[in-house]
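Can anyone check this?
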Amino acid sequence: MTESHSYQHPVSQILHLKEATSWEDDWLDYTKMLGLTTADIPELIRLSWDQEPLDFEVEEWGVHAIRAVIQLDPEMGLNLYIDQLKKFPDDDWLHEEVSGISKRVGAIAIKPFIKLLEDPSQELWLRSTAANGLREVAKAYPECRDACVQATIAQLHHYKQQDDGVINSILVDTLIQLKAVEAASLIEQVFANCEIDEWLTGSWASAQVKLGLKQESDFSPEDLKPKPPEKILAIREMLDAFEKNRNVNDWNQRSLMPTKPVAKGFGSSKQGKQSNKNKKKKR
C-alpha cells in the first residue's frame, strides 16, 4: 500500500478511509471531514495517480482524491477524471463514477463529454461513458437538457459509421430516457438499419411508448418484448446445434454397444423355481 508518510496532512488521511466509503453514491464532505482546501489540490492529484503495484485500475484512495478535487475545483476535478479514464479505460470503478460526477459538476461537463463522444480514436467504453455523462447532466440540470440532447442526436446521425452496436444502443437509450421526441424519426431509422441491443433500449415499439408517441395497447406483447442481440442469437444457435449433435452421438454410441449377457441363474425361471422349493422346505 502507498505509505501515508509520503503525503502531507490532511491529504494523508485519505489513505485511512474505509474502502467501502469509495463505493457509496453519497460522497464524503472532504473539506469538512478532512479539512482539505484548494492548497491541497496538487497533493490530491499526485495521490490519484499513485497506484500499486499494477497500473490497470484506480485504487480506492484514487477515487477519494478525484472526488475531493471535484469538490474543491469542479473543472479541474473533471479534467482529472477524464485523464484517469483515458489512462485506465477498463476500470469499471471509474466508469461507474460518471453518474455522481456529472450530477456535481453540471454544465461544465458538456463540452468535454461531447469532445470524447465525437472522437472515434478513443476507447469504445470511454465514449460510452461520455454519452452516459451527458444523460446524467441532462437529468440533474433541466436547463442543460437541450444541449445534451442535441449533442446526442448529432452523434447518432453517424450510426452507419458506428457499426458497433454499443455506441448506437447507448445513444438511443439516452434519447429515450430523456424523452427526446424530436429524435423519434432518427431513432426509428437506427432500429431499422443497424444492430441495437434491445436488452438495453427495449424494442422500437416500447421506445414509442416511453416517448409518449403510442400506448401499450397499440402493440402486441410480442412487439413490446425486446429481441436478443444477433450475437446472442448466433451463440444460442451454436449451442443448440452442439447439444443436438452431442445427443445424436450419445444415442449412436449406445446403440452400437453389445448387449451384456445375463449371468446364469440370475433372472432365470430356474432360479425362481429353486427359490420356491426352498421356501416350501422352510415351512
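Reply from J.R.: I decoded it. Confidence is low (pLDDT under 50) at residues 265-283.
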